[in-house]
């Protein structure tokens, strides 16, 4: 019931529109550095958020976790100071352009790896570690 163009694409097994296809595995050009809106506004910001919580504000998050464990149901009232410290740290790093640039570059490397190999992008770091010369 669809048009002939879309059925031709699905029969060929294409996932991406024609302008986004290409590359060795037809997953897109590995050297393309343009970002789609979802990549820029969601995926990269998720990477920033994860790095902020795991690396940049780890001490504040640990402090809030410890306080929350001791306070139980009264966490909202007893851990305001720790919550505010984590929030301030998170805000400071979340809007840091340097961190955003690092996460953007990491995302582009992972996407390029996926487009070249067909393997998930998170494996890029593992392969990069094993391929380095000591």
TrEMBL record:
<dbReference type="GO" id="GO:0005739">
    <property type="term" value="C:mitochondrion"/>
</dbReference>
<comment type="similarity">
    <text>Belongs to the CMC family.</text>
</comment>
<dbReference type="Pfam" id="PF08583">
    <property type="entry name" value="Cmc1"/>
</dbReference>
<protein>
    <recommendedName>
        <fullName>COX assembly mitochondrial protein</fullName>
    </recommendedName>
</protein>
<keyword id="KW-1015">Disulfide bond</keyword>
<keyword id="KW-0496">Mitochondrion</keyword>
<feature type="compositionally biased region" description="Basic and acidic residues">
    <location>
        <begin position="1"/>
        <end position="12"/>
    </location>
</feature>
<dbReference type="InterPro" id="IPR013892">
    <property type="entry name" value="Cyt_c_biogenesis_Cmc1-like"/>
</dbReference>
<feature type="region of interest" description="Disordered">
    <location>
        <begin position="1"/>
        <end position="32"/>
    </location>
</feature>
